[in-house]
Amino acid sequence: MAITVLVTVAVPPLEVVERDHSVSLSPPDAPAVKAMTRMGELFQESNSESVAVIVLEGEEPLGDEAHRYYDSLVSQLKQDPEHIQHIQDFWGDPLTAGAAQSADGKAAYVQLNLHGSFGQAAANESVQAVQDVVKRTEAPPGITTYVTGPAAIVADMGQSGNRTVILITLVSIGVIFLMLLLLYRSFITVIILLFTVGIELQVARGCVAFLGLHGLVGLTTY
Predict the structure, then answer these.
(1) Residue 126 in contact with residue 114, Cβ under 8 Å?
(2) Most exposed residue of 20, 71, 141, 217, measured as fewest CB within 10 angstroms of its CB?
(3) Is residue 86 helix, strand or coil?
(4) What is the CATH number of domain 45-161?
């Protein structure tokens, strides 16, 4: 019981440790990761493989007002080198604008190289920084802005997984409770069993959180 109290009080919850110390989904020695990192270094763009994309979609072909909005987003992103390593500003250059705009002129995008690797806490923070810029910048009427790309998808999946942990846990406990009740036909016996398992689970979670907090094991939602 003392160990349970210790790991509960002295160690942050496992979900918090996973969020703040999440490791990359891609091993750094994977050929694809090494190639992408090397490419970023050779072109002096970034040293990570984490990529996000901002997409502007309009009900009508994007005009000057949409361009000013786009320029405002890019300007704010350039002021955040802590999270944004490189911006492929094709739509901001008349010579390359056509490559970043749809054939009907109703959509355009800008690609970002972010700090951190896929799934890593640093990459998730970078995605959040991009989303914050989009949220606080008012879009012109008829323009919808999306943050997507590999890094954003991984970050969203992680958040979705964390949000469902409590629900899945409660459902699992309910199913186990019913199964034990059918087996033992005694509420007191089932409650004692679940209480014992709950203590064991809390100790295990606390130990894993402690190891992850000090970098002894890698943690990720996946």
Answers:
(1) yes
(2) 141
(3) strand
(4) 3.30.70.1440
Residue 168 CA: distances (Å) to CA of 43, 161, 171:
45, 10, 5
Model confidence at 21: pLDDT above 80: no
Contact present, 47 and 37 (Cβ < 8 Å): yes
C-alpha 13/C-alpha 20 separation (Å) is 11
Q: Identify which has the larger pLDDT, 34 or 144.
A: 144
Separation between Cα atoms, residue 84 and residue 74, nearest integer Å: 11
More confident residue, 142 or 39: 142
Average model confidence (pLDDT) across the chain: 87
Domain boundaries, the chain: 2-23+164-213, 45-161
| Through-space distance between the first and last CA atoms of the chain, rounded to whole angstroms | 30
Integer CA distances (angstroms), 120 to 22, 38, 83, 154, 209, in order: 5, 19, 13, 9, 16
- What pLDDT digit, counting tens, does each position of 143-168 carry? 999 999 999 998 888 777 777 878 88
For residue 167, give Cα distances in angstroms to 21, 74, 153, 164, 173.
23, 39, 22, 5, 10
Residue 218, phi then psi, degrees to nearest 5: -90, 135
pLDDT at residue number 139:
95
* 171 exposure class (CB count in 10 Å sphere: 0-12, 13-18, 19+): exposed
Tokens of 201: 């689970």
pTM metric for this prediction: 0.79
Give the per-residue pLDDT at 1.
67
